[in-house]
Amino acid sequence: MSRRIGTWIKWLLVGLALALFFWAVNRYGVTRLREQVELLGPWAPLGLFAARFLSILFPAVPGTAYSILGGTLFGFGKGLAVVCLADLASCSLNFWLARRYGRGLVQRFVGNRFIEKVDRFSQGYLENNFFLMVGFLMTGFFDFVAYGVGLTKTSPLKFLPALVLSIAISNPPIVAIGAGVFEGGKMLLGVALLGTFGLALLTGYLKKRKPDAVG
């Protein structure tokens, strides 16, 4: 019961943070909000980095909102850089923790509710198919995938290129949504929505191809 309450509290905090953010956007406008963020100096991107990093280390906390937030507050280029660095660092840590300490520690991070999902990915033969690994890392399950692959015999030299490739393909559309919506960039927003649609199709395809790995 305590874990469930903790999860609800995390979701509530994320919801409150998003509500506060959209209230600030409506009240002050994006331009003024960005000016205020710039006054924080390096602390602002570090704050986004930490939020995105923790949302992947503890998958019960949704992370997609932080990608959109990055595009909104910092623009496409800077927001994408922060999100990609956070993803690279956190997913690498997920992989290393699973490899070094095993399933027991992973379960503490993801909770009893999600450990079965990690187990499915670790048993889904991803270690034998590089492009299948890339594909799953490009979906919304990438945090669980990083843990799951860490529980296999996949070498870091195989996992890291797959991770970098997946980040380079999947992050730009999501960050561009935040940048496009609030900057009024219709072309950027159009590309972002098409990219997001493509990622959704990929997720559906992978579910059909490996139904035992995604539940």
Brief synopsis:
With 215 residues, the protein is an all-alpha fold. It is built from ten helices and no strands.
Describe the structure in your own words:
With 215 residues, this protein is an all-alpha fold. It has one domain. It has helices spanning 2-28, 30-39, 43-57, 64-101, 103-110, 115-122, 130-137, 142-150, 156-183, 186-209. Helix 9 runs antiparallel to helix 10 (186-209). It is globular, with a radius of gyration of 18 Å. The two termini are 23 Å apart. The model has no long low-confidence stretch (mean pLDDT 75).
Q: Which key terms come to mind for this protein?
A:
about 0% strand; about 220 residues; globular; mainly alpha; single chain
How would you spell out the order of helices and strands?
A: HHHHHHHHHH
Helix segment count?
Answer: 10
Q: Which structural class do the helices and strands define?
A: mainly alpha
Rg computed from alpha carbons, rounded to a whole number of angstroms: 18 Å
Helix content: over 70%
Task: Note the topology.
Blueprint lengths: L1 H27 L1 H10 L3 H15 L6 H38 L1 H8 L4 H8 L7 H8 L4 H9 L5 H28 L2 H24 L6
Helix pairs in contact: 1-2, 3-4, 4-5, 4-8, 4-9, 6-8, 7-9, 9-10
